From TrEMBL:
InterPro entries: DUF416 (IPR007338), YP001051499.1-like_dom_sf (IPR023381). This is DUF416 family protein.
């Protein structure tokens, strides 16, 4: 699902875009932890270190590209292949990894298409999960998309993304503001799927 307010971010400075990416990584990370612990895959510490690196470099103009490449390689080594698992949680773990990978790439190349993708990972994770828990089938349910769009988890994700964009629009940022946004989106460390 596309967040229409995301287009506003395109006009803003790199730092605000990076904060949006970072906050999405934080929301998706607990989903990876859940998958890792329940399906014996990967190392959440590697992803945590990558997210912490993103946080530490939100206001840097020229982060260390070699360090970023090293982190990217480690995250890729801990990214699950959806072909290897038959559970929906592999998709949410993959989305957590790709949001981090795209955020790291964004720190180097500042390509706004990465921010668009990161936003989509946030909603796709919810979309796939809703389809699973509600047993929805696109081919047989004429109200398929409406049920997804109106599910409380999807409404929450859209509200969070929209709220972050609104907050970012209203001010210049510092690390205190980022902590405020983290607190507002925190879900008792249960991630966007409320696990």
């Amino acid at each position: 699902m596309r967040i229409k307010e995301l287009d506003k971010l395109k006009e803003w400075d790199f730092h605000k875009q990076a904060v949006f990416a970072y906050l999405t990584c934080e929301r998706l990370y607990p989903n990876y932890v859940y998958f890792s612990q329940n399906y014996d895959f990967g190392n959440p510490t590697v992803l945590r270190e990558a997210i912490d690196y993103i946080y530490d470099n939100l206001f840097e103009q020229n982060p260390d590209k070699n360090k970023i490449q090293t982190i990217i390689q480690k995250v890729e080594e801990n990214t699950p292949d959806t072909e290897d698992f038959s559970v929906v949680f592999v998709s949410s773990a993959l989305d957590a990894c790709t949001s981090i990978l795209d955020s790291l790439d964004f720190l180097i190349h500042k390509d706004f298409s990465k921010i668009q993708s990161i936003s989509t990972y946030g909603t796709d994770t919810i979309d796939m999960y809703i389809q699973e828990i509600e047993n929805l089938d696109f081919n047989t349910d004429k109200d398929f998309q409406n049920k997804i769009n109106n599910h409380p988890l999807m409404k929450r994700e859209i509200a969070i993304q929209t709220g972050i964009i609104s907050f970012l629009n209203s001010k210049t940022l510092d690390y205190g503001d980022i902590q405020t946004l983290l607190h507002l989106q925190e879900n008792e460390k249960r991630g966007s799927l409320n696990l």
